[in-house]
Every structure is written in structure tokens, then in C-alpha cells.
Amino acid sequence: MGKSVLVMMEIKDNKLRNVSREILTAANRIAEEIVAVAFGSDIAKHTEELGRYGASKVYTVTNKELDVYTTDAYFQALCQVIDKVQPDAILMPHTAIGKDLAPRIASFYNWGLVSDVIDVQKEGADIIFTRPIYAGKALEKRKVVEGIPFATVRPNNIVAEVTGGSVEKIDFKAEIKNLLTIVKEVIRKTSEGVDLAEAKVVVAGGRGIKSSEGFSLLQDLANVLGGAVGASRGACDAEYCDYSLQIGQTGKVVTPDLYIACGISGAIQHLAGMSSSKVILAINKDPEAPIFQIADYGVVGDLFEVVPLLIEEFKKLQYTTA
Ligand code: FAD
Q1: pLDDT attached to residue 12
Q2: Does the predicted TM-score (pTM) go above 0.85?
């Protein structure tokens, strides 16, 4: 089992997303041969890099219809690659695209799907997937006993490793027809900068931020640390920031090295999106705030006093995650 593993790559703004490297490393643990697939007309330049992270073959599916993600175009193209490669296992990123596409693929082929895994290991002949359950309070291990092992992998949990090696590039034209959706324009809501889902440092604000101006203070701290800004739903509902920043059960799941929660109470739905962060620093003026129960470091105080001090100190250290 697991001889040939098909991994779907994600490229954003012409850059390979780090989760793509991470799933190549995960595939390396279980595969004899890694076949990567990447979509879009401008992807050939990434082939060598995919080889460095372990892919031995790369299917470059260069149809124009795949330059911008749509469920039906990607679905048609990926099915054709799966039919051609006949993989023994499939890994995809647990990103917006992976979350949308993987269940459709699984249901089409009548396979199970192990979603949102944080670790992939081989134990004897079995592939063992580890995934968080109960909003991150426990971990479960799963193996697939029927159909092929098929999983989506959460970003930022597997350390990508260069393994070297040569790669064969296979140009593949998919037959894409009867599209139900055509994207005419993509309007970005979030500002340019560090991708929240892959950031090593996340500075998140809650209702305690009190205004949209308060978020610029958090952006300053994020800039000093080379991180990204996130938010609780409380802050989004209060219109202090855009919903694209929301972290939690109904928002994004992040697992940075450092999560700084500012003026966030720590509701269970928020914890579902950030409790797996490696180090959590909470700043809250209420010493009883539940966020302190999961924080590694806590500062009881007014965030409008504490955050400027942090910015000043980190500037002195010239801290950077680069
Ligand atoms: P509050 O709970 O109001 O907390 C604000 C905190 O700021 C308080 O602890 C206060 O002490 C502190 N504070 C105030 N002023 C300052 C100051 N000057 N300095 C320091 N601290 C200060 N929530 C999410 O976040 N993500 C989700 O995905 C999500 N999904 C949900 C799904 C469902 C089905 C439901 C029912 C709820 C969901 N929620 C989600 C909402 C969640 O239950 C909470 O309501 C929300 O997380 C609260 O946001 P908050 O912590 O910013 O606000």
C-alpha cells in the first residue's frame, strides 16, 4: 500500500504555497513514488522545486480554465489525472481549495476521506493519519481499510524537507467541458502580505480591540514580527475587520509558532481555530478570561498599553521570522 502517492500542489500568486512542500514531505514517508499534479498555464517553472522536495513525476495541467480555481474545472482535470496515474494514495492541502475539492472527488470515486490531518506516518503496511478532534482537545489516528487512503493535510504542521532528486515533467491537457462556473474577476479582500493560514506568527484581535483603527496597531505588531493579522468572530461581527480574517470553528484554522491573542475572551469556537499553535500569548484585561487556560504566556492588562510596548521591544531585537 502507498506505492505511488498523488499529491495536489497549490500555487498562489505564482508562488508555490508552503503546504505543497509539506505534503510532499508527508508523501515521502509513505511513498515509493511521488507524483505531483499542478494546475494552471504558468506552472512549469515550479517543477524543479517539486523535484527537490521529493516528487519524481510532475503532471503540469496547463489548461487556461485552471488559472483561477473553480470547482468544476479542477474537478474534471483532477479526475482525469487520477484515472491516468491510478495512485495508491492521494494527499491534498487542507486549504480552501482542498476543502472544496476533496469531498467531491471522494464521493465521485466512492472513497472515504480523512480530512484535516496533521501527521502522516507509515506503520508496517498501514498508513496512519493523525487528526485533531473535539476542537483540538484530542487527537485520533485513522487508517483506511477500504478504498485508497485519501487525506487533506492541514498547513503548518509538517516540516518540509528537501530530499533532492530528479523529476520528470509530464505535460497534460485535460478535457474540460460544460463548465457551470466562469470566474470573470477576483477581488481581493485581504491586503497583500503574509498568508494567514501559513504565517509563523499570528497577531489576532477580538472585540477588545474596540474599533477598526485598533487593528492597525495589531498590524504594526504583525509587521515587526513578520506575521499576519487574524481576528475573532466577535471582532468581525462588530465590523472592526473583514470576515476573511476570522479564526475558529467557522473561520480559518491556523497553527503558527506564535499566536498572540489580543482582547479575545477564548470562546470554544475560537479555540477550535488556534489551539494547536505552538506558543500562545494572551493579552486580556480580565484575569478570568478563558483564553488564559490555554495560553502559554498571559499578560493581564490593557492591550492598548501592552501592544505598543511589545512593538517597541521587538523592534529593538529586530525580530524576524524570515
Ligand atoms: P468577547 O467574548 O466579547 O471578548 C472580548 C475580550 O476582550 C474580553 O475577554 C475582554 O476582557 C477583553 N478586553 C476588552 N477590552 C480590552 C482591553 N482594552 N485590553 C485587553 N483585553 C480587553 N468565534 C470565533 O472567534 N471564531 C469562530 O469561528 C466562531 N464560530 C462560531 C460558530 C458558532 C456556531 C457560534 C455559536 C459562535 C461562533 N463564534 C466564533 C463566536 C464565539 O462564541 C464568541 O462569541 C467570539 O469568539 C467572541 O469574540 P471575542 O473573544 O472577540 O469577544
Answers
A1: 84
A2: no
| Centre of ligand 1 from the C-alpha of residue 208, in Å | 8
How far apart, in whole angstroms, are the C-alpha atoms of residue 293 and residue 230?
Answer: 20
Q: Report residue 244 as a C-alpha cell.
A: 476573511
pLDDT at 184 over 90: no
Q: What is the mean pLDDT of residues 163-173?
A: 92
Q: How far apart are CA 240 and CA 215, in angstroms?
A: 7
Distance between CA atoms of residues 38 and 58, nearest Å: 7
Q: What is the arithmetic mean of pLDDT over 280-298? A: 98
Are the CB atoms for 190 and 245 separated by under 8 Å? yes
Residue ID of nearest Cα to ligand 1 atom 48: 234
pLDDT at position 320: 53
Query: Domain spanning 196-321: which CATH class is it, in words?
Result: alpha beta
Look up cell 487593528; give the residue: 215
Average pLDDT over residues 260-267: 98
Coil, helix or strand for 177?
Answer: coil
CB neighbours of 171 closer than 8 A, spacing ≥ 6? 60, 62
Hey, what CATH topology would domain 4-173 get? Answer: Rossmann fold (3.40.50)
Check: CB of residue 119 under 8 Å from CB of residue 129: yes
pLDDT in tens, 108-133: 999 999 999 999 999 998 999 999 98
What is the three-class DSSP state of 261? strand
Residue 169 in 3-state DSSP? strand
State yes or no: pLDDT of 318 exceeds 90: no
| Protein residues whose CB sits closer than 6 Å to any atom of ligand 1 | 206-208, 232-235, 246-251, 263-265, 267, 269-270, 273, 283-286, 289, 302-304
Q: Where are the beta strands (DSSP E) in the chain?
A: 4-8, 11-12, 15-16, 33-39, 57-61, 89-93, 114-117, 119-123, 126-133, 138-142, 150-153, 168-172, 201-205, 228-231, 258-262, 279-284, 297-300
| Domains in the chain: boundaries | 4-173, 196-321
